[in-house]
């Protein structure tokens, strides 16, 4: 299948599919005319990429994990890979730190908002 077919099948834009290829996440076969040729296996790879992105993982980390996951019906299942658990724990810690910083920012904003409403009313 061509890139347009893969885009339609996965709901991911052609531009993003090309980005995944640039990042080394998606490896289509190139035909003699330069067209990308995708298979049904690429559909699964794109689903895996989307799931891992939804988990907050950057593409650099996803590149190291793609070979460590497979489908089990509708869910993504990890396969045993060296360093996978440590890597996931590291990324979870990074997300936790980000959430903590965002919550602190939200608290400051809430304080400013409450003060502004007290001072000027709800304009």
Overview of this protein structure:
The chain is mainly alpha-helical and 123 residues long. It has 2 domains: 1-81, Multidrug-efflux Transporter Regulator, Chain: A, Domain 2; 82-123. It is 62% helix and 10% strand. The protein has 5 helices and 4 strands, in the order H-H-E-E-H-H-E-E-H. The protein has helices at residues 3-10, 14-22, 40-54, 59-65, 84-120; strands spanning 29-30, 36-37, 69-72, 75-78. Strands 1-2 form a two-stranded antiparallel ribbon. Strand 1 (29-30) and strand 2 form a beta hairpin. The protein is elongated. The model has no long low-confidence stretch (mean pLDDT 92).
Defining traits:
123 residues; mainly alpha; Multidrug-efflux Transporter Regulator, Chain: A, Domain 2; 2 domains; two-stranded antiparallel sheet; 62% helix; 10% strand; elongated
What shape does the CA trace take? elongated
The average pLDDT is 92
Beta-sheet strand percentage?
5-15%
Proper CATH architecture of the largest domain: Orthogonal Bundle
Kindly state the number of beta strands.
4
Please report the distance between the alpha carbons of the first and last residues: 56 Å
Helix percentage: 55-70%
Count of discrete structural domains: 2
Main beta sheet strand tally, sense and closure: 2 strands, antiparallel
CATH topology of the largest domain: Multidrug-efflux Transporter Regulator, Chain: A, Domain 2
The number of helical segments is: 5
In the CATH hierarchy, what is the class of the largest domain? Mainly Alpha
Strand order of the largest sheet: 1-2
Radius of gyration: 21 Å
Give the SSE string: HHEEHHEEH
């Amino acid at each position: 299948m061509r890139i347009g077919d893969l885009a339609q099948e996965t709901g991911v834009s052609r531009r993003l599919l090309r980005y995944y290829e640039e990042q080394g996440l998606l490896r289509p076969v190139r035909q003699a005319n330069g067209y990308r040729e995708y298979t049904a296996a690429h559909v699964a790879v794109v689903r895996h990429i989307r799931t891992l992105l939804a988990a907050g993982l950057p593409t650099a980390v996803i590149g190291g994990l793609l070979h460590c996951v497979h489908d089990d019906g509708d869910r993504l299942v990890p396969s045993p890979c060296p360093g996978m658990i440590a890597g996931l724990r590291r990324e979870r810690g990074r997300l936790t730190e980000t959430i903590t910083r965002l919550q602190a920012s939200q608290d400051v904003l809430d304080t400013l908002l409450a003060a502004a409403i007290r001072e000027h009313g709800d304009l």
